[in-house]
Amino acid sequence: MLLEGVPGLAKTLAVRTLSKAIDTHFQRVQFTPDLLPADLLGTQIYNPKDSQFTVKKGPIFTNLLLADEINRGAVQVQSALLEAMQEHQVTIGEQSFPLAEPFLVLATQNPIEQEGTYPLPEAQIDRFMLKLKVSYPTRDEERLIMDRMTSGKSSTSSRRASREILAARAIVNEIYVDEKLKNYILDLVFASRFQEIQIGIP
Q1: How does pLDDT run across 146-195, given as a tens digit for each residue?
Q2: Interatomic CA distance for residues 67 and 73, integer angstroms
């Protein structure tokens, strides 16, 4: 999921709150112009004692990854996420390491017109299932936020969801889909590629 909005709209707080409600491992990476792919994925470290390279895994080896202000990172760092988001694995040197399941990337970004941001590659945007634009809250919502922030009480959330996520994914694959619906989905897909194809609504 990609969350887009101007700074100060609690995008990061929303993801942190979600991570507290799910019983999984959480990592946050602040994307900056000087961030390197190795800072995200990990790297090989040479040990002079035994003349061997050992792999030090990066923060991407988690269940829920927050890529904070993803469009402030350079293009090569953004591209480092492609393999992980598509294939759920990371290649370091000549070795490929599978990522733990479930693996989800939640990213925040500022609007492109903000200074110091880089547009996301089209291939990476395609790997996000949802893009949500976060707008300013209403006056009533702003007042509620003000009351909560000045009450001195920290918001707490209990961990409710855990490995049931994997079980829910497995159930999705067992749902019956009629042949007519499958053909209609294919019509929509091909119509988005070739405009001359007519869609036949059943």
Answers
A1: 888 787 666 555 656 666 777 777 788 888 989 999 999 999 888 887 76
A2: 10
Long-range contacts (CB closer than 8 Å, 24 or more residues apart) made by 181-184: none
Q: What CATH architecture is 2-154?
A: 3-Layer(aba) Sandwich (3.40)
Q: Where do you find CATH 3.40.50.300 in the chain?
A: 2-154
Please check the confidence at residue 61 and state whether its pLDDT lies above 90.
yes
Q: What pTM was computed for the model? A: 0.72
User: Contact, 163 vs 34, CB < 8 A?
Assistant: no
CB distance 197 to 191 below 8 Å? yes
> In the chain, what is the straight-line distance between the N-terminal and C-terminal CA atoms, in Å?
32
Q: What is the pLDDT of residue 66?
A: 92
Could you tell me which of 70, 65, 60, 85 has the C-alpha nearest to residue 18? 65
Residue 121: both structure tokens together:
């590659």
